[in-house]
Design a protein that fits this description.
This protein has 710 residues and is mostly beta strands. It contains three helices and 61 strands.
Length: 710
């Protein structure tokens, strides 16, 4: 028998009444389909017993055993609902563009009917809200000729400040159970804005942002009342620092080219064109649906979506529904297990409540390769419970409101069939994301195992680049044997949020390795701009042969954990220190050996809120055989805080000498010499032949293959 692959064709000129078996229309009923949804439906039909007597190959005799390619002719395909794939679609099926052609799967709708107008003494365009939108507030993104339009902000640059979060609880910080429903503002910063309920407040505190609507402003008491509560009280960080915020969709600041303003009272959209844009030949798209593809498997009953591949497809323009929206909370597709949901302004760490525009559960042996994702309202791709052997290879994710990839399965208390692992995330380029959900993460791997995160470039976002693990403390975790290697991570944080890392981990992770990554330029708002950050309970992680530099806190920081191994790394130029430990416990926290620690007039070691260098007993750090230097020539090895100091920078402190440091048991066999890098201040850590690194057994780190390989 001559088995042949089934070819199904899709074209914007086609019809879903056609057979899909030819690239061009041959006769009535014979030609390409119009939608990708119809293509999968047609494959189901051809795989069934209902296709007797139909020559589905068109290239000679043969039999369709189940393998198929969906060839999509170039063009933009607007989705008015997501493509839903179930176990009935399981077959070796690839979706790809016709050779040399570009294909866009678009979750938006074209907006027309624009007319010339004038607002705030500026010429603009205006049109009515398109049909199909339940609320004008859904329109918080717009794209003109492929470029994102921006909502007018107040202030245009910088931030306003919450003077008092007016929390109902004694605890006004992160541990409070409720947020703020009112707050005091600084005199002169707020006013009675036009359509004030259309104005959106974006507040940044701790490691999250909040999206709030202002109900009213009392200019006498300098108090603003919110339509709903914030997730946490509006304090900036620990210790009561001011919470910075800005406002979006402010009519009074609608005056710059490329801005759009949505007026719910009039039901209209206004846009100020950029140079060269003309009202009669501009394409304006507003996202209309939140998800494009839903791989809807059922892992508990072993009904998997299998063997489906999307390749070289552009995914664009999906709607942003925020977690407090009733449609969001009542839709089973969007619900994320194990996260907190209530009507409030924010989401927890890493924008964890925000799903993916492509969503997988109960999915096996499927892949998304060489695709692009842009203008999306949520994460790009989410791989949820019961997924195995998923390949996310060679994609570009840019200009999205949340993060890039989000991976999660059941934890150690969940159903074993809901576990997720054996994921390959390699050679992707993720950048300029977190546009709305600033706490979105580039690659967010929570409860997963045997996952490879390799050769990716992640840059220009406001929170962590790569996060692995989702267990606080030492409770049992399914997270193990994950590898984070050869990634280039940079321009992270941008001084907007706090408590972040280039690579961040949580909980016990035996067999997990972080190696051969290039991480630099990490900057937080209040605290916590770290290159590699093992957070609460991170244990049994090997951190090896990474190059980390230019952090506004430390190159390596461990909150608390045990038995981590940190070896053969280069940590350079942390504004606070090179190495930091926040909390001492009655075990070995980490081993630090054969590393190069290079400062520029900063501390080498920094103690934290729960650890002092003068604590008696077990040393939490086993440090030896390191090469330590300060390019100023003055090594500031560590500073010992007073008994009353309770934060890293607080209290009276005295500088330890190297001899005093070694007398405590640290770095007894370390070398204090210039490593002789070629140009470390400009990121060139090439070692001179005369370097003393041979004295500590340091192995030079090859960065030539860091980042995507194609």
């Amino acid at each position: 028998m001559n088995y042949k692959e089934l070819l199904i064709y899709v074209s914007s000129d086609g019809s879903d009444k056609n057979d899909g078996l030819s690239a061009s229309i041959i006769q009535d009923g014979v030609g390409p389909l119009k939608t990708i949804q119809a293509a999968f439906k047609k494959i189901r039909y051809y795989r069934s017993g209902e296709n007797q007597g139909i020559d589905i190959n068109l290239h000679g005799p043969g039999y369709f055993p189940g393998s198929a390619r969906i060839i999509v002719k170039g063009g933009r395909y607007f989705f008015d609902k997501p493509l839903i794939l179930t176990s009935e679609d399981s077959a070796p099926i690839s979706v790809e563009p016709a050779k040399g052609e570009g294909v866009v799967f678009d979750g938006g709708v074209k907006v027309d009917g624009w007319q010339e107008s004038s607002v705030n003494d500026v010429s603009c365009w205006v049109t009515a809200r398109p049909d199909g939108f339940e609320s004008t507030s859904d329109i918080n993104q717009m794209f003109v000729n492929g470029a994102r339009a921006l909502r007018p902000c107040y202030p245009e640059k910088g931030f306003l400040s919450v003077v008092d979060p007016l929390s109902e609880e004694a605890d006004k910080y992160w541990n409070a159970k409720q947020g703020s429903i009112r707050f005091k503002y600084m005199d002169g910063e707020l006013q009675q804005f036009y359509n004030i309920e259309d104005v959106e407040m974006v507040a940044m505190h701790y490691w999250i942002e909040e999206h709030l609507r202002i109900k009213s402003i009392d200019e006498e008491s300098l108090t603003a009342e919110l339509l709903y509560s914030s997730y946490k009280p509006l304090s900036g960080s620990w210790g009561g620092s001011a919470c910075p915020y800005y406002l979006e969709n402010v009519f009074e600041n609608f005056n710059k080219p490329g801005q759009f303003y949505v007026d719910s009272t009039l039901g209209q959209i206004f846009y100020i064109p950029r140079d060269g844009e003309e009202i009669d030949n501009s394409e304006v798209i507003i996202p209309q649906i939140p998800q494009l593809i839903y791989f809807k498997g059922d892992p508990i009953n072993e009904k998997y979506v299998q063997w489906i591949k999307f390749e070289n497809i552009n995914f664009e323009h999906t709607l942003n529904l925020w977690p407090g929206d009733e449609r969001f909370m009542n839709n089973n597709v969007f619900k994320q297990k194990g996260t907190q949901r209530r009507r409030c302004g924010g989401t927890s760490q890493g924008a964890v409540d925000i799903p993916g525009a492509i969503f997988m559960e109960g999915t096996v042996n499927c892949s998304i390769e060489n695709c692009t994702f842009s203008g999306l309202g949520w994460y790009a791709v989410e791989v949820e419970q019961g997924c195995q052997n998923i390949r996310l290879i060679g994609n570009e994710i840019r200009d999205c409101l949340a993060g890039g990839f989000k991976i999660n399965g059941t934890d150690s208390n969940g159903h074993e069939k809901g576990r997720t692992g054996n994921i390959r995330i390699t050679d992707n380029h993720i950048h300029d994301v977190g546009k709305y959900y600033h706490s979105g993460i580039g690659i967010f791997a929570r409860n997963t195992y045997n996952t490879l995160i390799s050769h990716n470039s992640v840059h220009d976002l406001y929170y962590t680049a790569i996060s692995v693990g989702w267990m606080w403390g030492y409770r049992p975790s399914v997270c193990k044997n994950n590898v984070v290697e050869y990634n280039h991570l940079y321009n992270i944080g941008k001084e907007l949020l706090s408590d972040m890392g280039g690579v961040y981990t949580l909980g016990p992770q035996p067999g997990t390795e972080i190696r051969n990554n290039l991480i630099h330029d990490i900057s937080s708002a209040h605290y916590g701009g770290w290159a590699i950050y093992p957070d609460e309970g991170s244990s049994q992680v090997i951190i090896e042969s990474n190059v980390c530099y230019n952090c506004n806190c430390s190159g390596f920081h461990q909150h608390y954990g045990k038995e981590n191994v940190v070896r053969n790394n280069i940590f350079a130029f942390g504004d606070e220190s090179i190495i930091a430990l926040s909390k001492k416990e009655k075990h070995l926290s980490f081993t630090l050996q054969r590393n190069i620690l290079l400062a520029d007039n900063s501390l080498i070691y920094c103690e934290g809120y729960g650890y002092s260098f003068n604590d008696p007993g077990l040393l939490p750090i086993d440090s030896s055989m390191n090469l330590i230097w300060d390019i100023s020539g003055d090594i500031k090895i560590a500073r010992e805080k007073s008994d009353t100091a309770d934060v890293v920078q607080g209290g009276a402190k005295s500088m330890l000498t190297v001899d005093e440091w070694q007398a405590k048991g640290y770095d007894r066999f370390s070398v204090f010499k210039d490593p002789l890098f070629k140009d470390p201040k400009n990121g060139d850590f090439t070692l001179s032949d005369d370097s003393s690194v041979k004295d500590i057994g340091f192995i030079p780190i090859d960065l030539s293959t860091v980042g995507p390989r194609y």
